[in-house]
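Q: Please design a sequence for this.
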């Protein structure tokens, strides 16, 4: 692992790998891929919680 870090930081100049260029390069595609699924997952989670409260005969406003 140390040799890999040496290659990254000593052999390749740091100026070629800026923060935006290397670490944030795939952030846009990550958001486009994950946000729609996260929205669906949140809606399903909330509906399951409401359904559980109704099945257990609990107050729907009770946290």
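A: Design:
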């Amino acid at each position: 692992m140390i040799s890999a870090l040496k290659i990254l930081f000593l052999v390749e100049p740091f100026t070629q790998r800026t923060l935006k260029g290397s670490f944030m390069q795939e952030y846009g595609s990550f958001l486009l891929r994950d946000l729609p699924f996260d929205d669906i997952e949140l809606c399903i989670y909330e509906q399951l919680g409401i359904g559980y409260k109704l099945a257990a005969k609990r107050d729907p406003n009770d946290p």
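Q: Thanks. Anything notable?
A: Residues 18-63 form one domain. The chain has one domain: 18-63.
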